[in-house]
Amino acid sequence: MKVFQHVTDLGDLNVALAEAQEVKRDRYQWQHLGRNKTALLIFFNNSLRTRLSTQKAAMNLGMNVIVLDVNQGAWKLETERGVVMDGDKSEHLLEAIPVMASYCDLIGVRSFARFESREDDYEEKILNQFIRYSGRPVFFMESATVHPLQAFADLITIEEQTPSPLPLKGERGHLQDQVPSQIHSTLPLEGESLRVGELCSGMRGGGLCPGRPIKVVLSWAPHPKALPQAVPNSFAEWMLAASQQGLGIDFVITHPEGYELDPQFAAGACVEYDQMKAFEGADFVYAKNWSCPGVTRPEDYGKVLHDYHTMMDWCVSARQMAVTNDAHFMHCLPVRRNMIVTDDVIESPRSLVIPEAANREISAQVVLKRMLEAL
Ligand code: CP
Fold first, then answer.
1. Ligand 1: which residue has its CA nearest to atom 7?
2. Would you kindly state where each structural domain of the chain is located, as residue ranges?
């Protein structure tokens, strides 16, 4: 693998999910792959999970790791060609990229949407320069439009937390009282018994949950600031790909009008503007804020469309969760409590925010392992 950006870069998701479980069984068994190899992690933006989990994954594989925070201690980088560099930026990305690449074998980059130009953001102007000029495999650690390491971790988490067969509302019994880690420990591992994703491979409507598809809902939620669309874009892309590959997922997106996601990621998803209706019978609820993607309202790209005080009924609370199929709550973190989700929902035994974050180490390790194998 030379680039990790889209779900298609990973190929068959059943194979990738099985590989993730193989990593979980013994994450140190490939240390020979990373010996004398260096991963360079470049951050143009803040991070807690991506920084730590990707470092850990690289160390699990025996790699050396260099982390660069571009805006803290490095020269400020100019990213536009043709600019007269008489401002505060002392170095150009076109020199910095090959220099950085000369010190490493793999490069991970985090560079968020800047909201200056939809075209620049959606063309991935920064990340594409790394792909073009570094000569190294490049993995996206959240770019202007995608966050594939998060979406892969989310899919791993959904598979792990899907009982087989999935109980219907009111039939969950003992699972209801277990914390997520306990539920996980009751699920079969690869080789122990059925691998749920393989059961219905190629069969839409079966897959993760034999008997019926699971319902996964991506819900917009309020936020005081304009946030990028990378997480919802990737989550939609990965859920739809999982559905198309027969993993048995019915995927629904709910948001106020104007927040329609770009069709390159969300085409084929069911969009329901009534949040309560969307939540009915859901098995997994994934909450996230995003700013206007500029699809139905191009002039509002990157904007918050309404004063958040008027949108607080979109905050995920017990009211919405009550109409679900005792759904798991998911969020990529960091999360603003009582904006996106209430305290009681995020603290409930059905909340998966910690297992999701833990699975970031696993998703990163599968990706780095594949890149090392292809060197
Ligand atoms: N979910 C996620 O990517 O977290 P960080 O922004 O802390 O890396």
1. 48
2. 3-146+360-374, 150-357
Q: Which residues line ligand 1 (CB under 6 A)?
A: 47-50, 142, 150, 332-334
Q: pLDDT tens for residues 270-285?
A: 999 999 999 999 999 9
Query: If you average pLDDT over residues 143-165, what whole number do you get?
Result: 93
Mutating to test ligand 1, I would choose from 41, 43, 45, 47 the residue with most ligand atoms within 8 A of its C-beta, which is 47
b/e code 248-287 from CB counts within 10 Å (16+ = b): bbbbbbbbeeebbbbeebbeebeebeebeebbeebbbbbb
Which of 45, 109, 333 has most ligand 1 atoms within 8 Å of CB, for mutation?
A: 333
Write down the pTM of the prediction: 0.89
Q: How many Å lie between the centroid of ligand 1 and the Cα of residue 48? A: 6
pLDDT tens digits for 102-142? Answer: 999 999 999 999 999 999 999 999 999 999 999 999 999 99
Looking at CATH, the fold of the domain delimited by 3-146+360-374 is given as: Rossmann fold (3.40.50)
Contact in structure between 246 and 201 (CB atoms under 8 Å): yes
Residue 171, pLDDT > 60, answer no
Which superfamily does 150-357 belong to? Aspartate/ornithine carbamoyltransferase (3.40.50.1370)
Q: Name 30's Cβ contacts closer than 8 Å, sequence gap at least 6.
A: 60, 61, 62, 369, 372
DSSP string, 253-272: EE--TT-PPPHHHHTT-EE-
Domains 3-146+360-374 and 150-357 share a fold: yes
